[in-house]
Amino acid sequence: MNWYWILGWIPSTLAIFGNGFVIYLIYTRRRLHTIPNGFILSLALADLGVGACYFPANFICEFSPRACLQSVADDIAVAMIYSSTSCLCVMAIDRYLAIVHPLSYMTLMTRKRAFCLMTLSWLIPFTTYFIPGLCTSLHRCSINRNITVVIWTTMFEFIPCAVLLFVTVKIISIARDHRQQTTRLDTQLRFNEPKHKSYKIHTWTPARVIITVVAIFLVCYSLEVCSSLCYFTDLCTFSDDLSNAVRFLVVTNSAGNPIAYALLKRDIKRELKEVLREKNDANVVATEV
Question: Which pairs count as long-range contacts for 98-106, CB under 8 Å and 24+ apart, including other chains?
Answer without folding.
Answer: 98/36, 98/206, 99/171, 99/174, 99/175, 99/178, 99/206, 99/207, 100/170, 100/171, 100/174
